[in-house]
Amino acid sequence: MDLAVARSPQSLFLRELVAQPASVGAICASSPRLAARMAALVGAHPSGLVVELGGGTGVITAALLAHGVPPHRLVVVEQSAALAEHLRRRFPDVCVMQGDAAELTDWHAAGRLPAGQDGLPQPIHTIVSGLPLLSIPAPVRQRILHAGAQALAPQGRLVQFTYALRGASPWQASGLVRQHSERVLANLPPARIDVLGH
Ligand SMILES: C[S@@+](CC[C@H](N)C(=O)[O-])C[C@H]1O[C@@H](n2cnc3c(N)ncnc32)[C@H](O)[C@@H]1O
Fold this sequence. Notes:
This protein is α/β, with parallel strands linked by helices. Helices cover 34% and strands 23% of the residues. It has a single domain, classed as Vaccinia Virus protein VP39 (Rossmann fold), CATH 3.40.50. Helix 4 crosses helix 5 (59-67). The protein starts with a helix and ends with a strand. S-adenosylmethionine is lined by residues 23-26, 29-30, 53-56, 59-60, 77-80, 83, 100-101, 130-132, 136, 144.
């Protein structure tokens, strides 16, 4: 990666957008306002893992840390190798998994996510998703929805943003129930945040 791109997260984001438009699914990273609302909707997180799907350049990751999520309980999943490398450099104390979000259940079952202080696997109490579910091909989307709903702990909470201001959340097709919805107009384009649970 050349130095100019390494120094500018926005250049990196645009480069990935040109290379994989459906996978990135946005013209720019989320606004600070959207990231802050996503983090606020995580609520209290006394135990277990917080897993962010589709970390991008780390705007929401930074908001989660600023909100008080401890870095050792935060896992960020990012498919793009270049973005995953950027995230590892930017957040050295956070576990960054490079790969497909559909692998979440397998990684969890295989003990590849951070263990608790007792050495045991930790439940995933929160999933925060910036995945562009509507532009991801249907078969891949189905696997992601299945994995996310399976991995989420029984009392867990899933927070997803979308640019579709109306309609059901794709997560509802996986059996999750929408508990809250709000719009964030201070974003390009304006977005909706859905909070879901079992
Ligand atoms: C709309 S961007 C959001 C980035 C960042 N969270 C933000 O809000 O600015 C979507 C991100 O999801 C990643 N992504 C897309 N499909 C993925 C998948 N199947 N597994 C993991 N990450 C994926 C893309 O590479 C991209 O970084």
